[in-house]
Amino acid sequence: MQYTLIAGFYGILITLMNAINASLTAVYGGWFSPTIIHLAGLITLLPAALCGWSRRKGRAPWYQYLGGVVGILTVICSNLSINVLGVTLNLVLMLLGQMTCSAIVDHFGLFGAAKHPFRMGKALAILVMTIGCALMLLLSDGKLSGGSDMFLAVLLGFLSGYTIVIARTINASLSETAGIGHSTLMNYVTGLTGSVLLFALSGFQMSTFFPAAGQPFTIYLGGVLGALGIFLCNVATPRLSALQMTIITFVGEIFSGVVIDALAGRFSLGTVLGGIAVAIGMLLNMRADAKEADPHGLPHQS
Q1: Less Cβ around it within 10 Å: N or C end of the chain?
Q2: What is the rounded average pLDDT of the residues 213-227?
Q3: What contacts 124, CB < 8 A, 6 or more positions away?
Q4: d(Cα 14, Cα 214) in Å, to the nearest integer?
Q5: 17-21 contacts: CB < 8 A, separation 24 or more?
Q6: 216, exposed or middle or buried, with CB in 10 Å at 0-12, 13-18, 19+?
Q7: CA geometry: angle 133, 224, 65, nearest 5 deg
Q8: What is the mean pLDDT of residues 170-197?
Q9: pLDDT in tens, 73-127
Q10: 269-292 vs 87-108: helix axis angle to the nearest 10?
C-alpha cells in the first residue's frame, strides 16, 4: 500500500511540475527550457550528493545511465505535441502510449523489470482505461489543428508515453544496482548533459535572455519538483509492475489536474469521467495482479 501511495503522490508532482514547466517553456522556448529544468534539479540534489547520499553502491552497465537522456525526449515530444493538440489531447495520447509500453515491458521483463505475463484480466483493465481515454478525448474542449502537422503531433504524443515508461524503468534498474541516491543524481547529470548538447545543436535558440525580466521565481521550480519526483519514482517503480505504476501515477495526475482546474475556474466533464474509468481500470488490473500473486502476496517473477 505504501508504494501505491508513493506512486499516486508522484503523479500529483508530475501535474504540478508540468504546469510549471509549461510556463517556463512559454518564456524561454522549447530548446533552452530543458537545460534550466535539469540544472535546477541538479542544484537541488547537490547538497545531498555532497553528504554522500548519492554514492554509488554497486557497478551498473552503461545503458542504465540513459534514463535522463530518454527523459529529454519526453520533454521535446510532449512540448511539440501540446503546441498542436493542446494539453488534454496530449495527455490522452501519452496515457495510451504508457499503457501499451507498460504492458510490453511487463510481459517481456524489459530493461531489467520483473516479468508480469499479459493475461485476460489485464486486457480487460486496459480496455476500460482505453474507454476512459476516449471519454476524455470526446468530451474535452481540445480541437485538432495544425493541418499536415497533426499526424506528427499525434505520433509524438503517443511516443512520449513510451519514453516516460522506458526512462522510469531504466532509472529504477539503476537504483536497484547502484542505489536510489546515485540513480536520482545521475538522471540529472545525464539529462543536463544531453539538454546542453541539444541546446547547442539548435544554435542556442531561446525566446528571451536568461534571466527573463518580470517573471516569478516559481517558474524555475519544475526541476526541483522533478528531482523529488524521480526519487519517489525510483522508490516505487521496482516494487510495482510497469502497468501498475502507469495507472496509479495517471490517477494522481488526473485528479490533481481536476483540482487545479477547479481552483482556476475551469471544469472538464470528460476529464472527470475519464479519470473515473481509468480508476476502475486500475482496480481491475490490481485484481488481476492479485490472482497471479503467490501465497505470500508477492507477484511471481520469472
Answers
A1: N
A2: 89
A3: 284, 288
A4: 26
A5: 17/222, 17/225, 17/226, 17/229, 18/222, 19/260, 20/218, 20/219, 20/221, 20/222, 20/225, 21/75, 21/222
A6: exposed
A7: 80
A8: 90
A9: 887 787 777 767 666 667 778 878 888 888 888 878 777 667 777 677 667 777 7
A10: 10
